[in-house]
Write a structure and sequence with these properties.
Blueprint lengths: L1 E6 L4 H10 L5 E6 L9 H4 L4 H4 L9 H7 L2 E4 L6 H8 L4 E4 L9 H8 L6 H6 L1 E2 L2 H9 L3 E3 L3 H15 L8 E7 L14 H4 L4 E2 L7 H10 L7 E7 L6 E7 L7 H12 L5 E3 L8 H4 L5 E7 L6 E7 L3 H15 L16
Parallel strand pairs: 1-2, 1-3, 3-4, 4-6, 5-6, 7-9, 11-12
Antiparallel strand pairs: 7-10, 8-9, 10-13, 12-13
Helix pairs in contact: 1-14, 8-14, 9-11
The chain binds NADPH dihydro-nicotinamide-adenine-dinucleotide phosphate and N-acetyl-L-glutamyl 5-phosphate.
């Protein structure tokens, strides 16, 4: 069995990891850390885990104990902590960071967008970016994974086939994204109260969202420098990310050719699906699952391509993809623990 510990198990990504890993046939959950809730039963905070974790309690973070007892550690903390923790955990343990500390290759860009110093440049250099479908070979040999941001995962799965094929004007990309409130984490925040966010809808952080440099970095890997326009919005729902993306092709492309591109790219992928032409993605169809649903259209009037893409921010956008990466790192079947379908209604 693989011994797994979670640092920051009281948050949404930590609890989602537990929800998925209790059904992973190869995993034993070891140390599940918290600050204030240390010593308390996990099932009291997360009753959905009652029959799975029984009397298991949160524990205070003890690096030596974790090093001794774990094969894999997931770090589910606010940005800035994983740089220190990954150093302390050392190189003999596999680490998957769900935050952004190892995602941005250029430290000045990280510091500008995150307002935090990059204190682990040596670890940054060896970290592998964990968008599984595009970095599988590197992930196989990695010790440290930078798990992608949720909006980023959604946008990259939608856009990469087009950018990789050099079919679009790399400065024409407009990404209009919406996220459920769990994307903001479980910590108390007035903006996320039902009375503020319920029956409400708003854009936030236009022009400066932290995911802009991450999306540009990853799309630019294909060869051309990519500049995007990205605006996130807050949906009055718990989970889900929905992106509608507009791009200008370099030359006219038929919808049939466009569909073939996506079909070929994702034919072998367990979690990325091009929907039938008459369908449009919905957040509920992927709710609780590790799946990404994509639709592509060509507007015959304007010539633009429109891509619709949807994931569950806590699963493919965070904990599910982290487990997918763990499976790849350990040479396991990539889908282990991730067989859930979406939940409707
Ligand atoms: N929510 C999402 O959809 C996604 C989140 N992420 C990233 O994953 C990481 C975790 O996110 P999420 O689970 O949503 O966050 P939450 O706010 O839900 O949970 C944060 C966790 O971090 C702990 N924590 C908070 N501050 C500190 C601190 N100063 N020192 C030690 N522990 C601390 C909390 O523990 P305690 O109970 O002790 O306070 C809690 O367990 C973040 O980096 C986030 O950006 C990535 C993709 C998607
Ligand atoms: C709704 C909401 O607030 N969403 C978060 C994104 C969550 C995410 O992907 O996390 P990272 O911070 O690890 O990139 C935001 O916009 O900041």
């Amino acid at each position: 069995m693989i011994n797994v510990s979670i640092i920051g198990a009281t948050g949404y990504t930590g609890s989602e990891l537990m929800r998925l890993l209790v059904n992973h046939p190869e995993v034993t959950l070891k140390h599940l850390t918290a600050r204030k809730l240390a010593g308390q039963k996990i099932s009291h905070t997360f009753p959905f885990l009652t029959s799975f974790l029984k009397d298991k309690c949160f524990v205070t973070l003890d690096i030596e104990q974790i090093k001794q007892d774990s094969d894999v550690v997931f770090i589910c903390l606010p940005h800035g902590h994983a740089m220190t923790l990954a150093k302390e955990l050392g190189e003999d343990i596999k680490i998957i960071d769900l935050g952004a500390d190892f995602r941005i290759e250029d430290s000045d860009t990280y510091e500008a967008f995150y307002k935090l110093p990059q204190t682990a440049p040596d670890l940054l250099a060896k970290a592998v970016y964990g968008l599984t479908e595009y970095h599988r070979e590197a992930i196989k040999g990695a010790q440290l994974i930078a798990n992608p941001g949720c909006f980023v995962t959604n946008a990259l799965l939608a856009l990469s086939p087009l950018v990789e094929s050099n079919l679009i004007d790399s400065e024409s990309i407009i990404i209009d994204s919406k996220s459920g409130i769990s994307g903001a984490g479980r910590s108390a925040n007035v903006d996320n109260l039902l009375s503020e966010a319920g029956n409400n809808f708003k854009a936030y952080n236009p022009l400066q969202h932290r995911h802009i440099p991450e999306i540009e970095q990853e799309l630019s890997r294909f060869g051309q420098t990519v500049q995007i326009q990205f605006t996130p919005h807050l949906l009055p729902t718990e989970r889900g990310i929905y992106s509608t993306i507009y791009v200008q092709p370099r030359s006219n492309i038929s919808e049939e050719a466009l569909r073939q591109l996506y079909k070929d790219k994702y034919a072998e992928e367990a979690f990325v699906h091009l929907l039938d032409p008459e369908q449009l993605p919905t957040t509920k169809a992927v709710r609780g699952s590790n799946h990404c649903h994509i639709q592509v259209k060509v507007d015959q009037r304007t010539g633009r391509i429109i891509i619709f893409s949807v994931i569950d921010n806590l699963v493919k956008g965070a904990s599910g993809q982290a487990i997918q990466n763990m499976n790849v790192m350990l040479g396991l079947d990539e889908s282990l623990g991730l067989s859930q379908s979406g939940v409707m209604p």
